[in-house]
Design a protein that fits this description.
By secondary structure, the chain is α/β, with parallel strands linked by helices. The chain has two domains: 2-123, Response regulator (Rossmann fold, 3-Layer(aba) Sandwich), CATH 3.40.50; 126-221, Arc Repressor Mutant, subunit A. It has helices at residues 10-22, 33-43, 59-66, 83-92, 104-123, 152-162, 171-179, 189-201; strands at 2-6, 26-30, 47-50, 74-78, 96-99, 126-129, 132-135, 140-143, 146-147, 168-170, 211-214, 218-221. Strands 2-1-3-4-5 form a five-stranded parallel beta sheet, with helices on both faces. Strand 7 (132-135) and strand 8 (140-143) form a beta hairpin.
Amino acid sequence: MKLLIADDDPQLVRALRITLSAHGYEVLAAADGAAAITAAAQARPDIILLDLGMPRLDGIQVIQALRGWTEAPIIVVSGRTGSADKVEALDAGADDFVTKPFQIDELLARLRALSRRTQGATGEATVAFGDVVVDLATKTVTRGGHRVHLTPTEWRMLEHLARHPGALVTRQDLLKQIWGSDQVSDSGYLRLYMSQLRKKLEATPASPAHLLTESGMGYRLVL
């Protein structure tokens, strides 16, 4: 399992790299917030360990940026002990919070828990509707057995809908998933990308059976 450590403390990173590598993790490291985002985009880690107090983008900004395109579990590892910091990190999209200094056994237990959750989700990573199969693990889409090319934005939109089949996904939620903020003005972009997805995936794009619009609210994927 691939793990990214984003922390500007080289001694801690070195110690974690040695320990976690010994437990079978493939460890990558980034020394500041901007480097963490770049490393995550390039390496696609399975889990991210993230410090809050880093140069060139703090931890909260990194979480917000990452949550625009990845659902990889994020564990905040920070010396900040205030409940407000924990709440802010969790609200931004972190999955867990470990306060420094910590016992390595505790960190390993939390990593195992998140690994089980991730592996469990991957076991149900294929979503099918009509003659379309969406593979969330390999990030591929086929229709009638043939590969369908999606743009990165189209994929992020479809992926989020596929992870919540049958549920209403609001416009605000999609804006946050695609662009990292629900404050971005829609300006018709979601309608445009949904139209493109329907043309590629629906038998009758003008009268969709699966990628549905909930007027005034958002969208729903019906299997």
